[in-house]
Write a structure and sequence with these properties.
With 783 residues, the chain is an alpha+beta fold. The strands form 12 sheets. The protein has a 9-stranded parallel sheet with strand order 33-32-30-27-23-22-21-35-34. An 8-stranded antiparallel sheet has the order 1-2-3-4-20-17-16-13. A 6-stranded antiparallel sheet has the order 36-37-38-43-40-41. A hairpin with a 2-residue loop joins strand 47 and strand 48. Helix 13 (545-554) runs parallel beside helix 14. The chain is globular, with a radius of gyration of 27 Å. The chain starts with 11 loop residues before the first strand and ends with a strand. The mean pLDDT is 95. Bound molecules: alpha-D-glucopyranose. Residues 293, 321-322, 359, 432, 490, 505-506, 539, 564 line the site of alpha-D-glucopyranose. Alpha-D-glucopyranose (GLC) binds at residues 293, 321-322, 359, 432, 490, 505-506, 539, 564.
């Protein structure tokens, strides 16, 4: 029985069990609890009919679990459900409390009504009626003037709300790419994929992605709540009411996974097991990438490539923004400015060691006679309006229609188009504008798409549109060239990490956007998206030399390492500033190339554990209150810690060292953990530290991956106890899954380093393994 909107479930009358699923019979409706694992439980209430298959969860994670069930007696009897790791006490109205096995309360449903705070008096509302009230068709004066009508948002009635009590020791993380700070406590966010050209301050509550996965850190352990419902939703973490945090959805069902782990590492690992892990990328995709909207002819691309090499800035890829298309028609080539033959330009770039990444938007120009449009019309692949006409809005090419990616047939058609790009010589695909963005207002909620054969409204598919597009792109690309697909997407949904790398959309060349890069990429990492990046230097607005220098330093470990900028703003290639900035830029891109083996090893770790490359300190030190809200430092793996300067004019900064001993990565200066220290950071200095015992692999700098064979491994060794596993494969295809890998194991104890190759499936042993001890300046051959 589907429940009425916002109606309470009422009294718990009884329950029955079928395998892992406990069905709860309430006065008003049915609810269910599915115990997938001892630490993974799914709550479900059908607010709409039936249960849809998840987009995000594509694997069945059920394990055999011993479950004990006990229902109390009396008027408000509750059901207690226990696994080996958790117990859940469920009462009337589907309220629940979650305990660990020691009986510690980890979370409990709100014990009071959520009263949303007033934002205006009723008199104000009345007085403002003229501005907020409708004047023409459905539009208010404000909307006529191009402003959002705030009443719309305030008055939206959610389909259901899930509230929980807030505790003093709670800190909140995850939620994907949301704006603001690392710890989300005290803020509220909307899940509605949005194209946001304005500055992304913490007042911008909806971003490009919807990842309704919340990590709740408590003293006794870490909980995760994954609200797997793609409809528009809202998550408030103590902003409306400091005693409650809540989730509300505008439609769909209550699908809530409860995840538990004693630590945050375990929790991220569990969540990524549920929604999938970011697969190992091609090695070159970790290299530096250059992009700009406005590289608008073949000669510009050749010039950029020449300059990259002439200025000796290592670079692996150049991106092709929409300029390369013929009138912004996707899967076409502008012959006028790029030459008749795409293969010619792309071959030329390849010869010089560059990969080429083309942008593709979902919107197809409405243009009879244009093959992609004609095929879509013939196959009935485009979304339709409520009257059954193909729905038209505007994007870059003018009138545009939207593929219905909810249907396999449409995804397959789109995936097949990748072959056009790879035949030209492109190596990857950059999916953009797939919120979907549209210039003549948002697509109305009732535009008709499909969930396979079932018609569904735009409101229901909006947040997974980018997810489905990138899934099709990834599958098409893999089929087209057999390599590990490199897809970058702007919009996506939880679980999208299986298919694409992401970037954070249109940031700006301002310090606050540089500052936000750190918490944003860290939270994306905790939300499964290990491979993520921001536009280095900022997309819109004019950057200056100081900002560029600080951005490249802070972004050295950004998994996606791309400088991208908008047309009309200052050119942003590294040589556009002073020679000092160029030198700094080069120094840090070179550092990136030296550390490629470390980053690639971490990508391998991600594939197996889900742990990201860029990590907030709280991931590894969840019991140290000094790290709960660190926004300007982060770990890279477990062994490196970066503390970039992200403020204009600063040449020193405060660094917090967590437990243990830390070494300055470049000078070997020792810092004892548990302390704050002021470190110097001139414009060319990135404060970077290694944990005692760290063994950090380096390669020699090349101008691009594969310029020459990497025949030497250089180990930077920081005294202490530690071990390290280094991994190598062909960096390109799926042979590694057949065991074609080389593995090396190194151990450092009692002042001695030893190591050996333990697997030789790839068969490219290093000719030299050199050890460098930054402290004593010693260097010797291990092999
Ligand atoms: C969007 C993208 C941006 C791109 C532009 C033109 O704004 O976010 O990266 O350059 O479209 O394609």
């Amino acid at each position: 029985m589907a429940k009425q909107k916002n109606q309470k479930l009422g009294k718990l009358l009884g329950y029955d069990r079928e395998g892992s699923v406990i069905r709860l019979h309430y006065e008003g409706a049915e609810a269910s609890v599915d115990i997938l694992r001892e630490d993974l439980i799914k709550l479900f209430v059908a607010y709409e009919s039936g249960e849809d298959e998840s987009y995000a969860v594509e694997e069945d994670l059920h394990q055999d679990v011993d479950i004990s069930l006990r229902k109390g007696s009396g008027a408000r009897a509750r059901l207690t459900l226990k696994t080996g790791r958790l117990s859940l006490v469920i009462g009337d109205d589907f309220t629940n409390a979650i305990y660990d096995t020691k009986g510690n309360l980890l979370a409990a449903s709100g014990d009071k009504e959520l009263v949303k705070p007033a934002r205006m008096t009723s008199e104000t509302e009345e007085k403002l009626g003229g501005i907020f009230g409708a004047v023409s068709d459905n539009k208010t004066v404000m909307e006529e003037e191009g402003h959002e009508n705030p009443l719309e948002k305030i008055k939206q009635v959610p389909a259901f709300i899930v509230t929980r009590q807030m505790h003093a020791d709670e800190h909140f993380y995850g939620l994907g790419d949301k704006t603001g700070f690392l710890d989300k406590r005290g803020y509220a966010f909307d899940n509605w994929n949005s194209d946001i050209p304005q500055t992304h301050t913490e007042q911008v509550t909806a971003t490009y992605k919807s990842i309704p996965f919340l990590i709740v850190r408590r003293d006794q352990g870490v909980l995760g709540f994954f609200y797997d419902n793609p409809c528009r939703s809202h998550i408030d973490l103590g902003r409306d009411d400091p005693e409650l945090y809540y989730y509300q959805a505008n439609g769909g069902n209550h699908v809530e996974y409860i995840l538990y782990s004693p630590d945050m590492v375990g929790l991220v690992s569990l969540y990524t097991e549920l929604t999938g892990r970011q697969p190992l990328p091609q090695l070159w995709t970790l290299g530096y990438q250059q992009s700009r909207l406005g590289y608008d002819s073949a000669s510009v691309f050749r010039r950029i490539a020449d300059q990259m090499r002439a200025y000796r800035i290592p670079c692996d890829a150049i991106h092709f923004d929409i300029d390369y298309m013929d009138g912004y028609r996707v899967f076409t080539w502008d012959r006028k400015y790029y030459g008749d033959c795409p293969q010619e330009l792309l071959k030329d770039l390849h010869k010089r060691g560059f990969h080429a990444v083309p942008i593709i938007d979902p919107g197809v120009k409405k243009d009879p006679g244009y093959a992609v449009y004609d095929e879509g019309i013939k196959g009935d692949y485009f979304a339709r309006d409520r009257n059954g006409q193909v729905y038209v809005n505007a994007v870059w090419p003018g009138d545009t229609v939207f593929p219905d990616f909810g249907r396999r047939q449409v995804r397959d058609w789109w995936a097949g188009k990748e072959k056009i790009l790879t035949d030209w010589g492109f190596d990857a695909t950059w999916d953009d504008m797939n919120e979907p963005a549209s210039f003549r207002g948002e697509l109305p909620d009732d535009v008709c798409f499909h969930r396979e054969d079932q018609p569904i409204s735009h409101a229901k598919i909006h947040n997974v549109y980018g997810y489905l597009m990138s899934k099709a792109t990834s599958q098409g690309l893999r089929k087209a060239n057999g390599k590990r697909p490199f897809v970058i997407t702007r919009a996506t949904y939880a679980g999208g990490q299986k298919y694409a790398t992401v970037w954070t959309g249109d940031n700006q060349s301002i310090w606050s956007h540089l500052q936000m890069m750190i918490p944003q990429l860290c939270n994306l990492g905790l939300s499964g998206f290990s491979l993520a990046g921001t536009d280095i230097g900022g997309f819109s607005g004019d950057a200056n030399g100081e900002l560029m220098a600080r951005w490249i330093e802070a972004a050295v470990f950004s998994p996606l390492f791309r400088n991208h900028s908008a047309v009309f703003c200052l050119f942003q290639e590294p040589w556009q500033f002073t020679s000092r900035v160029l030198d700094i830029y080069r120094e840090y891109v070179e550092l990136r190339y030296r550390l490629l083996p470390y980053l690639y090893d971490l990508c391998r770790v991600t594939e197996f554990t889900g742990l990201p490359l860029m990590r907030p300190l709280v991931l590894h030190y969840p019991n140290d209150p000094n790290v709960f809200a660190i926004n300007d430092q982060f770990l890279v793996g477990e062994d490196l810690m970066a503390a970039p300067v992200v403020d204009q004019g600063k040449t020193r900064r405060l660094v917090y060292f967590p437990q243990g001993t830390w070494y300055d990565y470049f000078t070997g200066t020792v810092y004892e953990g548990g302390s704050y220290q002021v470190v110097s950071a001139a414009l060319d200095q990135l404060p970077l530290f290694a944990r005692a015992g760290a063994i950090i692999p380096n390669w020699e700098v090349m101008q691009y991956v594969g310029e020459r064979e990497y025949d030497s491994l250089i180990l930077k060794v920081f005294p202490g106890r530690g071990s390290y596993r280094h991994y190598r494969d062909n960096g390109e295809d799926f042979d590694y899954r057949q065991g074609k890998v080389d593995i090396y194991e190194f151990i450092q104890e009692d002042g001695r380093l030893s190591g050996r190759q333990t697997v030789n499936g790839y068969g490219h042993p290093y000719a030299h393994i050199r050890v460098e001890e930054p402290l004593g300046g010693n260097s010797y051959e291990l092999k």
